[in-house]
Amino acid sequence: MEPLLEVKNLTKTFATAGPLGTRPQTLKAVDRVSFAVYPGETLGLVGESGCGKSTTAKLILRLLEADQGEIRFAGQDLLQLQQRRLRPYRRELQMIFQDPFSSLNPRMRIGDIIGEPLKIHGLAGGDTLRREVLRLLQTVGLQEEHFHRYPHEFSGGQRQRIGIARALAVKPKLIVADEPVSALDLSIQAQVINLLQDIQEEFGLTYLFIAHDLSVIEHISNRVAVMYLGRIVETASADDLYRAPRHPYTEALFNAVPVPDPARRAQRRPLRGEVPSALSPPAGCSFHPRCPYARPFCSEVPPPLEEKAPGHLSACHFSEDVGRYRLDRS
């Protein structure tokens, strides 16, 4: 099967002001990121805050412009298109934002917020527009009476449903969901995740689902890509990744999840140190200063992201050792 979205060597840097009297510094937020998303699947992109997940999402939708790389959607490299030629593809790729309040215009009524994409793309108007918005409201579990209300009149979960309805309005093929449940209570998170799965099945959608919560990623994803300091360090099916990770950072993420059994505490192997600054990343493998498996070689040669088992890619020189410090969660 051909991928619907294919990202190759995507790179984005930002110039930041250095300390007083020094030259500006360069921050590499996304560093040669590559992955593919296939029709009908959910690829989960997981990592700590600040690792470059949201920047990657914005680059894919060209809300930010990449320095280099390829973003192929249905075979077309979106980075080669001028804005006029890009517009038809904006219908095909939509985004659900992390903050369900700041992503909605507080001065617009909900019916206008959801209907705006339909008007911009010339898909509906007049009574047809109203009927379509009401249908979308029903699809995401809201009522006709909500049509004339403003965003501040809704709860966080309801506002995220409005964001989902807006993304669905133009009938996209791919939705990039950037931490869509991280700002919600746990009970509401489950409702929104179930809604996303229901509409994926109903409309045949493909998701790039970004999160830092491993339990959410496990529940919704078919495959998972793990990101650290701007790079993809591991990619595998959700089943393979959660059963047997092949990168020490992935193993550390699993070990950081609390387990309600004091007897297992001694089996933990906590990470050393802090996440390095993206302004001056370590030489060689970016994870080696914190890695329990690191050897001198790791500080010299960056490991390539390569296949360690069928469909399981890892950027680790000694991936066969990973698992020694894994906390048994069975």
What does this structure look like?
The protein has 330 residues and is α/β, with parallel strands linked by helices. It is built from nine helices and twelve strands. It has an eight-stranded mixed beta sheet, sandwiched between helices. The model has no long low-confidence stretch (mean pLDDT 90).
Give the gist of this structure.
Helices cover 29% and strands 22% of the residues.
Name its key features:
330 residues, alpha/beta, eight-stranded mixed sheet, four-stranded antiparallel sheet, 9 helices, 29% helix
Strand fraction: 15-25%
**Residue share in helices?**
25-40%
If strands are numbered along the chain, what order do they take across the biggest sheet? 6-7-8-3-9-10-12-11
Q: Please provide the ordered H/E string of secondary-structure elements.
A: EEEHEEHEHHHEHEHEEHHEE
Total E-strand runs: 12
- What is the structural class? alpha/beta
Largest sheet: 8 strands, mixed
Based on the structure, what is the oligomeric state of the protein chains? single chain
For the terminal residues, how far apart are their CA atoms?
34 Å
Q: Calculate the mean pLDDT score and round it.
A: 90
Please compute the radius of gyration using only Cα atoms. Answer: 21 Å
